[in-house]
């Protein structure tokens, strides 16, 4: 997820995280699915390509996966759930995906700097900062 969002900079990147069914009381594996951002203003907004989103939904259904997270980046600004994010996720104050979390990753200069998770609770999206793990494997010479 982090690599996809950093690679999308200086535009917002986006995608989803799905979880498999698991078995015998165990949680299933997670799968990160990057999606193309087709927003008309991709530096400040994201939108899934309808055909790519449909394909993800069909594959998830066939694999018995559940959508657990929508993620996207914010370019050179904070990892907050913006007014635009709220408007798209809950038009007219009604969440489109009430059981799904939203993760926002701040990307500054092409590098992830902070992250936060937002969930629908008590009539609004509530945010929680999350630790941003370092997935980079480069070593200084």
UniProtKB/TrEMBL annotation:
Pfam family, one: Prok-JAB
Keyword annotations of the record: Hydrolase, Metal-binding, Metalloprotease, Protease, Zinc
UniProt cross-references to InterPro entries, sorted A to Z: JAB_dom_prok, VirAsm_ModProt
Domain JAB: 1-106
Protein name: JAB domain-containing protein
